[in-house]
Amino acid sequence: MNKPVTIKDIAKKFKCSPSTVSRALNNHPSINEDTRRNLQEYAQKVGYQRNQVSLSLLNKKTATIGVIVPTINNYHESAIIEGIEAVLQPLGFTLNICVTNEQYVLESEYVNKLLSNRVEGIFLSVSQETYDSGHYEHLEQIKKRSIPLIFIDREYEGFATGSVIIDDYHGAFSAVEHLVKMGRKRIAHLKGPNGMAVAEERLRGYVECLKKYDLPVDEHLILNTNFKVESAIEPVTKLMSLPELPDAVFGVNDQVAIGAMKVIRDKGLSIPGDIAVAGFDNSPISAYIYPSLTSVARPGRQIGIEAAKIFADYLQQSSGKEFSTKHIVLPSELIVRESTMGGG
Amino acid sequence: MNKPVTIKDIAKKFKCSPSTVSRALNNHPSINEDTRRNLQEYAQKVGYQRNQVSLSLLNKKTATIGVIVPTINNYHESAIIEGIEAVLQPLGFTLNICVTNEQYVLESEYVNKLLSNRVEGIFLSVSQETYDSGHYEHLEQIKKRSIPLIFIDREYEGFATGSVIIDDYHGAFSAVEHLVKMGRKRIAHLKGPNGMAVAEERLRGYVECLKKYDLPVDEHLILNTNFKVESAIEPVTKLMSLPELPDAVFGVNDQVAIGAMKVIRDKGLSIPGDIAVAGFDNSPISAYIYPSLTSVARPGRQIGIEAAKIFADYLQQSSGKEFSTKHIVLPSELIVRESTMGGG
DNA sequence: CAAAAAATTTCAAACGTTTGCGAATGCTAT
DNA sequence: ATAGCATTCGCAAACGTTTGAAATTTTTTG
Questions:
Q1: Which nucleotides of D are covered by protein (CB under 7 A)?
Q2: CB proximity B120 to A under 8 Å
Q3: Is the CB of B32 under 7 A from strand C?
């Protein structure tokens, strides 16, 4: 690694002080026009790049924000990150992205590392294990330092800070209601992991909708998955061997819905003829697979944008105020496609 | 933002010097057992967190590496990032992820920012616009500073540095060869953007395979896409209106293959009965859609791992050596599924 | 008890940059 | 000639931490 050229190096070369060089490069008015031009030209020539690290130390500002997510391996998460980038990149911020893989220890370690790196804000989508463990000391650390913390997608409700989530409850409700209105009476649900807010909310939407239409809530029709396509295979296979088959399946996301579709087809049943299927996420391919998948649209990019805006607004006022505890709930919209069309 | 407690603060409290505090917290042997314990307990109590920024300045090491990718919005890219994380996170490195959205200006800006932030290495997947423009000054900057640069997935061939890519040529070749052996004679190709190495290599594999089997290379059967599922719709629609239909379609990735499948189905044609379809990426859902999609597996995570290993090895030796120019080409493997099975 | 040895602590410099304040220089007006 | 002013530049401190060497204190030894 070649030593980067510093302001001191330039100063030595020109037999002037570092202050002069610094001022010249920053177009400070009290610098002679000639010396300014000379210094700037030389700096350009030798490829001088200001050392942001030293500046960060001096100004106590790093222009860096941390983003902690359970995974980036699917459309929704990466859309969120893109949204954050879209807002914060023009403001000069750099994103420090950490993937917890749903592990509490990693989440905790990352929080420490980010605080140690003096990030100016943290966007966090709480990991599965953290929900399970109920440990939130790492979040207290963030609060203690009063660094802006914004929950994205998955929040910890006992914590007063900003958050941007979507309306999982109504999204799920509308999907199930649609199935009911299409004449479905035995609607199964492939739910997400226990304790996770998004999963629980969707389950609640499912249950409440069934109740509203006086349909029984059958425990045998509610099965666990972990959001991944593979995790749907075994539970749906079990579902398909019940004495009385369901006539619809509502998946906690598109992945498990697609997994369900495969099992159903392999059983020789038709979609939506025998069994209707609906998902959640409206991932790009959902419109293109066969049959195209009815799904609840989840504006990932918008989540990222709104979250970043909360942060940007906070910076703007910068009057030493407390950080916002604004909760934004974005609407989710049902997109009806072939997989649920036509009578049951 | 609360001022973080510093070593000086602690020193003042204990009426000792900062050096003592520093040594105590780092378990330096020449510190009295009692004072060490006291200081550590106090530091713990007040939530002291060492300021990495100042350390970075002092040691000229940031333990940060930059990752510049055109997009993170699909399975392959995010798999690469996960691979890099998997290797570098345990080594204490932080990832600085930048999304160029295929734009040259952003790529260039990001390089500058990363250099300014004194990252210790840069992983780069060259953007589309950069290929088009042929501008590589920003890469020269990296070289000048002799910061390890590793191309992932998309390389700039005129540049002597490490790279990890997959064998796009043979991957495409094997997919087309498979189609030929299944009796297909008019095989269309949905290619990627011009000038992009991965796209060109796959096109080359397609062309060379046709030549090997004495099949004509028909310009009308080679159509442009931009990797996205939507971008396949119009070209394939055009394809379906040719006087003589193709009997197979090979997509530059799974997305466009899935787009093609939709158009073909909408035309009332069967897959693979009338037209076989193959893709590239082996994305997770390819096994679960209907019909399941034949695809060339592309080990994204492995790319990330190998790239990170090149970097880690370089650190290891650290003998001021030149950075590796090792080129790793990972094999790609054809996964045959329903969409190409059975005679044409 | 004095001197030597060991243990513990402090000093000072360094990393690269910015910035308020004072100093030096040149110029103008009296 | 000289006071006054404007222009241009340098000094020194600061950000938080580490570390070799020096200084101090404590312990050991003869």
A1: 7-12, 14-20
A2: yes
A3: yes
Cβ atoms of B248 and B187 closer than 8 Å? yes
Give which of A112, A255, A290, A317 to mutate to test B binding, by max B Cβ within 10 Å.
A290
Contacts of A62 in chain B (CB under 8 A): 53
Alpha-carbon gap, residue B293 to A121, rounded angstroms: 42
A73 lies within 8 A of chain B by CB: yes
- Kindly list the residues from chain A whose CB atom is less than 8 angstroms away from the CB atom of residue B144: 2, 47
Same fold, A7-50 and A59-166+300-331: no
Q: Determine if strand D comes within 7 Å of the CB of A54.
A: yes
Q: Which nucleotides of C are covered by protein (CB under 7 A)?
A: 7-12, 14-20
Which contiguous run of DSSP H or E holds residue B247? none
Token pair listed for B313: 């090895």
Contact with chain B for residue A82, Cβ under 8 A: yes
- The model's pLDDT over A158-182, given as tens digits with 9 standing for 90+, comes to 788 999 999 999 999 999 999 999 9
A330–chain B nearest CA distance, Å: 21
Residue A316: the pLDDT is: 83
Contacts of B193-197 with C-beta under 8 Å, sequence gap 24+, read B193/B128, B193/B131, B193/B224, B193/B226, B193/B227, B194/B224, B195/B128, B195/B131, B195/B132, B196/B128, B196/B131, B196/B154, B197/B131, B197/B154, B197/B155, B197/B157, B197/B165, B197/B168
| Distance (Å, whole) CA A338 – CA A334 | 13
A59-166+300-331 CATH pick, 3.30.1360.110, 3.40.50.2300, 3.20.20.140, 1.10.10.10: 3.40.50.2300
Protein fold of B7-50:
434 Repressor (Amino-terminal Domain) (1.10.260)
Nearest to A123 by CA among A331, A330, A329, A306: A306
Residues A217, A219, A224: CA angle, nearest 5 degrees:
120
Asked whether the beta carbons of residue B4 and residue A145 sit closer than 8 angstroms, the reply is yes
Cis omega before residue A291 (within 30°)? yes
Question: Quick check: B52 and A265 CB within 8 A?
Answer: no
pTM of the model: 0.91
C-beta of residue A282 within 8 angstroms of C-beta of residue A296: yes
pLDDT of residue A320: 58
Q: How many CA atoms lie within 13 A of B254 on its CB side?
A: 27
Would you call A99 and B81 a contact, using CB atoms and an 8 Å cutoff? yes
Contact B288 A262 (CB under 8 A): yes
Nearest 5°: the CA angle A190, A194, A198 is: 75
**Could you tell me the end-to-end alpha-carbon distance of chain B, in angstroms, rounded to an integer?**
67
Specify the CATH number for A168-297+334-340; select among 3.40.50.2300, 3.40.50.150, 3.30.360.10, 3.40.50.450: 3.40.50.2300
Q: Name the nearest CA neighbour of B283 among B265, B271, B301, B270.
A: B301
A183 close contact with B: CB closer than 8 A:
no
3-state secondary structure of B88: helix
**More confident of the two residues B219 and A320:** B219
Widest pairwise Cα distance in chain B: 90
pLDDT (tens digit per residue) in B202-224: 999 999 999 999 999 999 999 99
Q: In this predicted structure, what is the pLDDT of residue B42?
A: 97
Confidence class for position A195, pLDDT limits 50, 70, 90: confident
Are A168 and A203 in contact, with CB atoms under 8 Å apart?
A: no
Using the predicted structure, report yes or no on whether residue B308 has a pLDDT greater than 90: yes
Locate the chain B residue with the closest alpha carbon to A88. B98
A22 is near strand C: CB distance < 7 Å: yes
Contact A294, A339 (CB under 8 A): yes
